[in-house]
Amino acid sequence: MEYDIVIIGGGVVGCAVARLLSAYEGSIALIERSTDVAEGASKANSGIVHAGFDAEPGSLKAKLNVEGAGMYEALCAELGVPFARPGALVLAFDEEQRATVEDLYHKGLANGVEGLEIIGRERILELEPNVNPQVVCALWAKTSGLVSPYELTYALADHAVINGVDFLLETEAKDIHKENGTFVVSTTKGDLHARVLVNCAGISSARLHNMLSDTKYEVIARKGEYYLLDHTVAPAFTRTMFQTPGKMGKGILVSPTTHGNLLLGPTAEDVTDDWDTATTAAALRMVSEKARRTWPKENLRTCVTTFAGIRAHEKGGDFIVGPTQGVKGAYEAIGIESPGLSASPAIAQRLVSQILQDNPLKKKVEWKPAYKGPKPFSGMTIQERAEAYAQNPEYGAVICRCEQVTEAEIRDAIRRPLGARTLDAVKRRTRAGMGRCQGGFCSPRVLEILAEELKVDPTQVTKSGGKSYLLVGTLASITGKEDA
Ligand SMILES: Cc1cc2nc3c(=O)[nH]c(=O)nc-3n(C[C@H](O)[C@H](O)[C@H](O)COP(=O)(O)OP(=O)(O)OC[C@H]3O[C@@H](n4cnc5c(N)ncnc54)[C@H](O)[C@@H]3O)c2cc1C
Known about the structure:
The protein is of the alpha+beta class.
């Protein structure tokens, strides 16, 4: 297959690049090794749109963080993705940490962050009564935001699909080389040829870069593990509660999510397996112990799940965003660890303007508007529910009781431009299976709907692609008895 542009990686960065490029003439493909987009770091992070006080002044991280964070209101409004700026506190518990807080304040000012203030114990406890009263002071970052990282990624991908980008899922780039000025990307599904290549492959980005360029990079997998608490109990905090950062990252936070859950974590541990997202008792114990410093009355009884994400930490420490050194036509985003979600709109803008500068493309006469999914049934008023039901009786069937997700929303998730193909893909698009019972009740029904919509046998439906089948066969096929 031949394309003008091939993007490797369907995380928030690759999808943001695909969306912006879809406004221009030309054939574009995005390849993703998983069954869905947002299966890498973009599904398993803290979901914080960082204000930008943490990154080193003068670094690309700092610049793109502040720029990207400032783009969130407009982007999320255009895509119909929930976004809020509840703010954040960085808590100091001793004099050494007070100095760190002061340092962060000055870094923030140097980075151009607005709305920063250092506040004392009394004010902290007024804002957040559940904070440990031993706190001495805090940096209050009023512009710190919250977003659902995978919902943003799906919305970016949907918009790109609507405007003609081909999303080739379950397609892994194995090798890249250049032949007569054209890139040849050898994938698990055959070769793709492209004039322009954009490497947004997260944890694999350095490996793919090193196949093309003489400048070598090294990305280290840095795991972060979390507890997620249910939203049926009001979160103990209304803002993101950071502790002072360390050498390995921003430290353990306690933060509400866009859906009203509470998140505790993440750890930061270098691992040798790029895809090792298993959680461990030891790491989670550490999260719980450290989080108690922020939240002495910590209560993990409402924990609905634990999960882990892998940061792509480049040894040099900064983001690498731009043309691939010495390789004409290739562009890349490497080492996009935190604050990569916050920076992603700016990373995409920077890459796309560099691509367009070197490869002028004609703007399309029409860039079709984004797909905005239906309003969640769980957030509707009684009146809205009645109206939705009158128009579509599938709103009358609540499939996920914990999260109040209806059949109408599940079918929509499968039919949307980059539709769900697995149980997990439905879960993240609709929240069916995200609640207290973690899909115990709704999974069989979601599976049936997926089979119906995709016109496949129920035994072919998977949890998350590959061989993660949920059913092994019919009772008759297993027992050999016709009436089983
Ligand atoms: C624990 C943790 C907490 C974080 N917290 C925050 C936060 O609160 N705020 C913030 O701003 N940032 C945060 N981040 C960082 C943020 O998640 C990342 O910067 C961002 O998601 C990176 O997006 P990406 O598209 O570059 O990478 P990814 O989302 O990893 O996407 C890369 C994609 O490429 C695919 N891929 C890889 N190799 C190949 C191949 N060979 N062929 C085809 N496809 C391939 C992968 O499957 C993946 O889908 C956090 C990260 C972690 C892990």
